[in-house]
Write a sequence for this structure.
């Protein structure tokens, strides 16, 4: 996103929403829906529309509370087509 006269609203719209950790998640933990949330986050992580696809998968890195959940943090995560 160029910084020339970009309003905060436009910037947030371009970022989109990502899956984030509601709590600290330790390496080796199997994800449940109550551990995950959705918000505008930087860096852009797993798209919000994929949140249900993460349930039952295992994280392979520690994820701090409020951090974006990135594709390389989740075993066997495959991003949906079209993103």
């Amino acid at each position: 996103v160029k910084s020339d006269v970009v309003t905060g609203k436009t910037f947030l719209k371009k970022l989109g929403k990502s899956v984030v950790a509601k709590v600290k998640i330790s390496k080796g933990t199997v994800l449940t829906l109550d551990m995950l949330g959705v918000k505008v986050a930087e860096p852009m992580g797993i798209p919000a529309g994929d949140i249900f696809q993460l349930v039952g998968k295992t994280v392979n890195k520690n994820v701090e509370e409020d951090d974006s959940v990135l594709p390389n943090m989740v075993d066997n995560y495959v991003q949906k087509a079209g993103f």
